[in-house]
Amino acid sequence: KQGGSDVRANTTTAVAQADGSFLITGHKWFTSAPNSDLLLVLAQLPEGLSCFFVPRILPDGSRNNIALQRLKNKLGNHSNASSEVEYHEAVGWLVGEPGRGVRTIIEMVNMTRLDCATASAAVMRNGTTAAAHHANYRSAFGAKLVDQPLMRNVLADLHVDAEASTLTALWLADLTDRAMRDERAAQLRRISLAISKYFICKRAPMHAAEALECLGGNGYVEDSRMPRLFRESPLMSIWEGSGNVAALDTLRAIGREPQTLEVLFDELDAATGADRAYDDALAAVKGSFADMSTLEYRARDIVGRLASLLSASLLIRHGHPAVADAYVNSRLDGSWGSVYGTLGGGVDTAALIARATPKV
Ligand SMILES: Cc1cc2nc3c(=O)[nH]c(=O)nc-3n(C[C@H](O)[C@H](O)[C@H](O)COP(=O)(O)OP(=O)(O)OC[C@H]3O[C@@H](n4cnc5c(N)ncnc54)[C@H](O)[C@@H]3O)c2cc1C
Prior knowledge:
The protein is α+β, with helices and mostly antiparallel strands. It is built from ten helices and eight strands. The longest helix is centred in the first third of the chain and has 37 residues, at 101-137. It is globular and about 75 Å long. Residues 4-6, 30-32, 74, 77, 82, 235, 238-239, 242-245, 248 line the site of flavin-adenine dinucleotide (FAD).
């Protein structure tokens, strides 16, 4: 099917009418919330792909020609219907300039990317608090789980990513507001949102699986609510640019607007001097742009490292010292294992677990 990541391959067409409206004909493989009052639809005009406002009910009260063909039977995300639709001369109105559809719809897409990052951070926080709460009440082998050293490592490690992601997502939300009136903030937001959407969303499924496991068998049972977090978690990474596409988009944006990388490095430079591991990781990522010929192959690595540095810089400047220390001296210094629960020594697990545990 055409479309998807390759937005410009869209074959839906729009034909101008004398009254200023357009008749839209074509197919859409994925339309979420098709019950919405209006849809933003991309369709081809002679000038190129353009964005249209398509209401479900027309101003005269009649139904627009939007045929729902099938609802998707999805892994999760069941509360949000997703469908296949066909437009048979559906009536729409142009939004933005003809031929500038992608540029127009990107404003909405960027808000949804922020939602994806925020929702992934929320999934992590939700899973962490459920795990910490359970560990405070469940005893095995003669002691509460929360008092057993290896479980403390897992809980603290889960919390590190939950807090780093939450701080980054909230900072991005503030930056989104500032970007409306400040060009530097707009450039910083362009790159920071892209790298963070990629990285925060990528971590959520691993995090959800580990948080679920902290509840043992109960975590696999629907009553615990953990399966819902698990099912929802991969979706945020697929939506609005799945992993590879998001990483490649970031590099493309840097290629087109190199100043976005400069403002990001300025932002990251502001946190130097506090932790040697951070300073070394920042110097290393700056060096990784030297070989441009292999950039596409290394896109996930580079974008992930930039995103980790951004979260680390925010934690160093605005976060809890124990979280900042644990994040930098695991995620940035190469010592962290490939699974949760592999923090090294010297981590203030008491402070981290206290921040993860809901007060009841
Ligand atoms: C529940 C759900 C709801 C959705 N709702 C909507 C909606 O309301 N509106 C809407 O427009 N879309 C919607 N989508 C579609 C979604 O945005 C796309 O599925 C998503 O962007 C991925 O595109 P694709 O399916 O075309 O995958 P593809 O583009 O076929 O990608 C498949 C894989 O290949 C990778 N890939 C693609 N290109 C490259 C490349 N150049 N190099 C390396 N790897 C690459 C991708 O990262 C991915 O892993 C929805 C999807 C889901 C799952």
